[in-house]
Amino acid sequence: MSRTTAPAPADRKDGATAPAEGLTHGLKQRHLSMIALGGVIGAGLFVGSGAGIAAAGPSIVIAYAISGILVMLVMRMLGEMSAANPASGSFSVHAERALGPWAGFTAGWAFWFLLCVAVGLEGIGAAKIMTGWFPESPEWAWVALFMLVFCVTNLAAVKNFGEFEFWFAALKVGAIVLFLGIGVLAIVGVLPGTDAPGTTNLTGEGGFFPHGSEGLIVGLLASVFAYGGLETVTIAAAESEHPVQGVAKAVRTAMWRIALFYIGSMAVIVTLVPWGDEAVVEKGPYVATLDHLGIPAAGQIMNVVVLVALLSAMNANIYGASRMAGSLVSRGQGPKALGRTFGGVPRPAVLVSSVFGFACVLLSYWRPDDIFVWLLNTIGAIILVVWFFIAASQLVLRRRTEREAPEKLVVRMWAFPVLTWVALAGMAAIFVLMAREEGTRVQLYWTGGLTLLLAAVGFARQKMRRPVTEES
Q: Second label for 291, Cα 20 to 30 Å away, from 182, 208, 305, 329?
């Protein structure tokens, strides 16, 4: 085996691919389908999109459409590789096979770091909602409770994670579909107690581009990072009953999911509510829209939905982090103890990922002005780094697969290699835009520093292992 080729999963007689690293096929197709659906609906959509609307105004629809196209291209590339070779390490495994162990090491541990910090952030957000309902309770106690619940859930069989995510995702999907239905009724003027707004909010208050191209750029940057989380479905697919079919189905439905949930939501919000309404940022765009329509208890309804979204993200990120760590260790890219599996579950990786996430929460209390801010800045652009590795890997692996096993190309990237290069150019453009904006420049620098550090360590490990690998 060459040093640039990761071990391929063994094929089963039923046509599925056996999961590596001692994992099991514990996820059913309904689990995977709902994880794919719910993966695009996070707290960033329900709450974080308000800042993008305030910056871009109605043109936020265009911003989400542009970034949505980029995400669809990335998911298509990732789907092609994951359907051909399902693995719990997903893009890390693909990067190792295409570019070498250093690339798998860099992409994998960067993503693990991102997920662990995100677990802490989501725990803090969920705790703030709970303390709003129970003012006398401490935030840390709620975070500890959530961490304990999802740590235990992920320590058990993978089907428990699948069940939690199935119902979390079902609630999120139901909420967003109900919101869109109410919004469309209001736009056409058939919702009781409302009048059709027409294009008043789209063309008034400065027009469709109230802050010009600069506002659109800020909205674009905000929208890019709202799409994070789609990658989890390709990690989970390796533990599903039918990995190849599951990935293929999830990727093929990505286009309408993104168009409906993200772009559709933004279009409904800016059509119904003046983009300059302070409530869009303070309460969140969904709460502001429901309040504007006079829906009773809108704030509390959306708080429940946001809480579900945060808890779902915590659960999914602990799962994703543990599987990524387990995959890395199984390929000799980390401490061996972290990769041990018990009952088909990488329990040491689950524990370490959960503890790291809780440590981030403690840092938010102890060192909110320096270390915690550093953590936030460091993860700022990691998802773009991951997407870059996905695109670069697909360029290499597509041609290799066409030569060696063309029957594995169940999912194919559109207009290859043209659209792959278009996606890479789009990522490069976003990096440039981040460097131009003061608010994102620091994130770019810190993420770049972490990426270079991981790459240097990965290169060093690769050189140290080369003689042994070549002799074997």
A: 208
**Which two three-digit tokens encode residue 32?**
């995977």
pLDDT in tens, 413-458: 999 999 999 999 999 999 998 888 887 888 899 999 999 999 999 9
pLDDT at 9 over 80: no
pLDDT tens digit sequence for 332-371? 898 887 777 777 788 888 898 888 888 888 887 787 777 7
The total number of residues written for the chain in this structure: 472
- Structure confidence at residue 159 (pLDDT): 77
SS (H, E, C) the chain: CCCCCCCCCCECCCCCECCCCCCCCCECHHHHHHHHHHCCCCHHHHHHHHHHHHHHHHHHHHHHHHHHHHHHHHHHHHHHHHHHCCCCCCHHHHHHHHHCHHHHHHHHHHHHHHHHHHHHHHHHHHHHHHHHHCCCCCHHHHHHHHHHHHHHHHHCCHHHHHHHHHHHHHHHHHHHHHHHHHHHHHHCCCCCCCCCCCCHHHHCCCCCCCCHHHHHHHHHHHHHHHCCCCCHHHHHHHHECCHHHHHHHHHHCHHHHHHHHHHHHHHHHHHHCCCCCCHHHHCCHHHHHHHHCCCCCHHHHHHHHHHHHHHHHHHHHHHHHHHHHHHHHHCCCCCHHHHCCECCECHHHHHHHHHHHHHHHHHHHHCCCCHHHHHHHHCCCHHHHHHHHHHHHHHHHHHHHHHHCHHHCCCCCCCCCHHHHHHHHHHHHHHHHHHHCHHHHHHHHHHHHHHHHHHHHHHHHHHHHHHHHHHC
Rounded CA gap, 123 and 186, in Å? Answer: 34
Tokens coding 50: 């308000």
